Amino acid sequence: MTASASSLAQLLEVRHVTKRFPGVTALSSVSLMLGTGEVLALIGENGAGKSTLMKILAGVQEPDEGELLIDGRIERVDSVQTAQRLGIALIHQELNLSDNLDVGANIFLGREPLKRGFIDRQKIREDSTTLLKRVGLDVSPDTIVNRLPIGQQQLVEIARALSINARVLIMDEPTSSLSTHEAERLFEVVKDLRQKGVSVIYISHRLGEVRELADRVTVFRDGRNAGDLSREEITHDRMVQLMVGRDISQFYARKPHKAGDVVLQVDGLRTQAHPDHALSFSVRSGEVVGVAGLVGAGRTEMLNVLFGVDPAVAGVIQVDGKLCRMSSPRDAIAAGLALVPEDRKQQGLVLEMTVRTNIGLAGLKKNQKAGGFLNDAQEGRDSAAMIEKLRIKTPNERQIVQYLSGGNQQKVVLGKWLSMQPKVLLLDEPTRGIDIGAKQEIYLLMEELAEQGVAILFVSSEMEEILGMSDRTLVMHEGRITGELQGEELSEEAVMQLATGNVAAAVAG
Amino acid sequence: MKKNLGILGLFAVVFIVTAVANPSFINAYNLENLIRRSSLYGIIGIGVSFVIITGGIDLSIGSVIGLVGCALPWLMIKHEFPVAAAVPLVLLLSLVIGLGHGLLITRLKLQAFVVTLCGLLFYRGFGRWLTSDATMGFARDYEGLRKLAIGRIPLGELPFIGRFNLPVPFLILLVLAVLAAVFLNRTVYGRYLLALGRNEQAARFSGINTTAMVVLAYVICSVVAGFGGLLFALDSNSIQPASFGNFYELYAIAAAVLGGCSLRGGEGSIFGVMIGAAIMQLLYNSINLLGIPTTLEFAIIGAVILAGVITDEIVKRIAAKRRAVLQARQAVV
């Protein structure tokens, strides 16, 4: 046990909690301690089990084994209401506000004070004003939530948590959609809450903010405890080491190679999301180009325009020197592009269909027999080949995709596109939410495809992935490409500076 | 096929109970009638199932039937169009209606419910205006064309039943069902419809022209409804513009749902829809033959459909739970 934890009264303890889902053990005997007025950072890669534990603490799910102790007493947290009664509040990454209602209504949603059977608006207004003051938000409780910027909406969520007298505030990636300024304001609020004895479990991928805020760090890896760091032990390298659990240079498969001719050439591309900024870049055959940036930098929007999902405002796209008009994904596929989208479940897969049908979905037209009849034999060959090549873990090809683990689902999406033999592979957060083994397999696959001459453009928010996998990195900030880094220049510092729009510092550094 | 066992069982139970309770059920005249009516409703049920598979809905079917029922005699009797012109014209009219629905739903992103609800009102009003609300019919003419709806093919002497004639609409239904089933299950377009009905975005991201496919589904639905309207009109020979085809969209949708189409889209069996349509006509027939007050007719049909849907849902849940347990066990091992 670390010094800072033992000096504080234990408020919350998680003892040997295990949680299984079909096909995957999300948590295996994890433990965690939280003192009163302590900020505990919980870190780990995607799929390490952080969100599962948070859901258990917030009463959304119940553990299969293990127990939760609050104030030293074993408690069964079987519903969100119970969690709230015990003073635990979860603030989701995607905010849970009814943005058509006003601030006061949101703070007291579901717990409206009544007066003669009607909502007591006066009381809501008064109490909300007090709560808003505590989180340093200077807006009227009558403001409709969708009028507020995202950073202020988050403060409204915190005010709501305080309104139930939360003693434990769980914040899941709270800064993922905030500007630097908004994030700093949030840090002030967190520090202030700590002063007032509120405990915070802070989940973040941004190791910089963990260093700034945390009293202690707990690291999860593959659903297990990987280690704890006390205040003085918190360094970037120690955290990364615990998270990855092995030497990073071995984990990523990228070997330097010679790139071939330019396959994808983009000039003056403007997206609807950021019409003021023109994007220009190229990707060569056999090259792996990473696209780094913060959430909201316009990376997904760029890929969607390239793939014809959304129309471009302006710009020229050339594939193999041929001008292409991408007015739908069909055009992009015909030009030799493939996109593994960010939202696997909504955009990548038809979850209720089989592995085989999903793998065959993009190639239906290409493989069809005369008269538009399905080519069953070809579909069978493709799916068998992809299940073997990508080592998709499935009982058989007729398995419904929904029941596969995240990593295997992602492999099905990849299989769908590899069976089309694309020239350019666009990947949007290709390893989000999948376990570490599947991750490495996807890196190996990217490496193998690049060797075969496929041009790869991948968007990632994971710094290690960007540093480990790209031959060249484009960094985006608020819709612009703020810089291009390769070789020696490619460092976490340089990427972060460019990603936050600090071009001068990145160049100087 | 396994999916259809439940509804097939329901059909068999109602059939046997009625046959045992009232011997006049197994009677050539009654069965011919039952088959003819089931076939007509089965046809429009197959049409609407295409729309339901995309996750959409078409409430205008009854009014399209009404409009075709008015327009056909209006063209042939009042304006003396030849059959070879009038029939293609009414089918073209149905096609244009379906195209209109599809484009409004995909291009303007209007809700299918709203678009086809407006259609329900509009086509009904238009048909009444066209005919000045006067009852239409074909009198004793057009015997050849009317064979499509009222024709019977003698099958000779059958055991228990006696001299039996097979209604022509049943043959039409069979041909349509085979075409529809092959289209849905054996062609890439059918696969497109099933995929986009489940997840429109994923289908679009896979390069499927989802807009064109949704429009096609509404066109199929309206053309089949128009064709059904033609048969219904030839069958009844007395078309009241204000009421002809009223509520038929609900019979069609109910048949599709009973037959295993999910209103959430992506699911559907043509065979199931045929049985679904037949069950509703069978129930109607049974209520008459078993001496149940006909005023209860709608209540009974509603209750049976609800019971069917509830059973289906419960069976599905049990199956899902079993699978989850099985998978968890595999994961632990």
Describe this protein's structure.
The complex is a heterodimer of chains A (509) and B (333). Chain A is built from 21 helices and 22 strands. By secondary structure, chain A is of the alpha/beta class. In chain A, helix 5 (121-134) packs across helix 6 (150-163). Chain A starts with a helix and ends with a helix. Chain B is mostly helical and 333 residues long. Chain B has helices at 5-21, 28-53, 61-78, 83-106, 112-130, 143-150, 168-186, 188-198, 200-205, 210-236, 248-258, 270-289, 297-332; strands at 152-158, 162-167. In chain B, strand 1 and strand 2 form a beta hairpin. The radius of gyration of chain B is 21 Å and the shape is globular. The two termini of chain B are 33 Å apart. At the A-B interface, helix 12 and helix 13 of A face helix 8, helix 9 and helix 13 of B.
Please specify the SSE layout and strand pairing:
The complex is a heterodimer of chains A (509) and B (333).
Chain A: H1 3-7, E1 10-21, E2 24-35, E3 39-43, H2 50-57, E4 65-70, E5 73-75, H3 80-85, E6 88-91, H4 103-107, E7 114-115, E8 118-119, H5 121-134, H6 150-163, E9 168-172, H7 180-195, E10 199-203, H8 207-213, E11 216-221, E12 224-230, H9 236-244, H10 248-251, E13 262-270, E14 279-284, E15 288-293, H11 299-306, E16 314-319, E17 322-324, H12 329-334, E18 337-340, H13 344-348, H14 355-360, H15 364-367, H16 376-389, H17 406-418, E19 424-428, H18 436-451, E20 455-459, H19 463-469, E21 472-477, E22 480-486, H20 492-499, H21 503-508
Parallel strand pairs in A: 3-10, 3-11, 6-9, 9-10, 15-20, 15-21, 18-19, 19-20
Antiparallel strand pairs in A: 1-2, 1-4, 4-5, 7-8, 11-12, 13-14, 13-16, 16-17, 21-22
Helix pairs in contact in A: 5-6
Chain B: H1 5-21, H2 28-53, H3 61-78, H4 83-106, H5 112-130, H6 143-150, E1 152-158, E2 162-167, H7 168-186, H8 188-198, H9 200-205, H10 210-236, H11 248-258, H12 270-289, H13 297-332
Helix pairs in contact in B: 1-12, 2-7, 2-10, 2-11, 2-12, 3-4, 3-5, 3-10, 3-11, 4-5, 4-10, 6-10, 7-8, 8-10, 11-12
